[in-house]
Design a protein that fits this description.
Distance between the termini: 31 Å
Structural class: mainly beta
Strand content: over 45%
Mean pLDDT: 94
Shape: globular
Order of helices and strands: EEEEEEEEEEEEEEEEEEE
Largest sheet: 7 strands, antiparallel
Radius of gyration: 18 Å
């Protein structure tokens, strides 16, 4: 966990520290057990060090509908219900892949097989958080915090970019930083690969707009098992702090 500003408190279990801007503290796995959480007193950057790990899921991203994109392999969804008990239906198009019930504050994982290149909607009766990983022969891939679908997204193709739809008849316009554009139409739970793919930070950045909510990720960057979800405009930022050593950074801007 890295602090953006001076005087940032980080508390988890027996750990309770105040960090200076740019200072990093490490939380051992036992400090934040499965389904656990940590509290911060200001903006931080945080990431897990395991293969296929990613950032922790902020409470601010909890929503009653999430859209998990599956580029490949089998899928594991770890779902938390931070505010109250929740019933969750995992749907791919019109098909229900699984259901689960969560108590308040509970986290559970389930393995499902979302069609490769498609998506599954997590539809709940209370706000939930979810984390996705793919598994193949014991290796973990495509770890990312599952976002709520949105009508407008920004991201970068540091690998292969895949956009998926929540509803039938979803028209998506993709505007690429190389000056090209494309339009696709998707059914519920379906997805398509976008042009402009790269590797290790060399691809294009992309602005997506749609008539129905969508999700998108970049995966397969050639360096580790993470994926990066595209973000809506209200989650874009102007200052960032990186908690771990990084090989590259890729930036997508809201305006030219």
């Amino acid at each position: 966990v890295a602090a953006l500003d001076d005087g940032t408190r980080v508390a988890a279990g027996s750990v309770d520290v105040v960090l200076a801007g740019g200072e990093v503290t490490r939380l051992a796995a036992a400090t934040v057990p499965f389904g656990g959480s940590f509290a911060v007193g200001g903006p931080v950057g945080a990431a897990g060090t395991a293969e296929g790990a990613d950032a922790p899921a902020p409470l601010a991203l909890a929503a009653a509908t999430l859209l998990a994109t599956s580029p490949r392999y089998l899928d594991r969804l770890c779902v938390a219900s931070p505010f109250r008990a929740a019933s969750v239906d995992v749907r791919s198009g019109t098909a229900s892949l699984a259901t689960m019930s969560l108590g308040v504050g509970e986290t559970r994982c389930l393995d499902v097989d979302i069609p490769d290149g498609g998506a599954a909607a997590l539809v709940a009766d209370a706000p939930i958080l979810a984390f996705h990983t793919g598994t193949n022969a014991g290796t973990v891939y495509d770890g990312y915090v599952v976002p709520a679908p949105a009508l407008e997204l920004f991201g970068g193709c540091a690998g292969t970019c895949l956009v998926t739809a929540l509803e039938d008849g979803t028209t998506v316009d993709a505007w690429l930083s190389d000056g090209t554009s494309t339009r696709v139409t998707l059914a519920a739970g379906a997805g398509t690969t976008l042009p402009g793919n790269g590797t290790q930070g060399s691809g294009t950045t992309v602005h997506l707009t749609a008539n129905h909510p969508i999700a998108a990720i970049s995966y397969g960057d050639g360096d580790g098992g993470e994926s990066v979800p595209f973000l809506p405009p209200w989650l874009l930022g102007e200052r960032f702090v990186v908690p771990l050593g990084a090989q590259y950074a890729m930036i997508a801007a809201e305006r030219p």
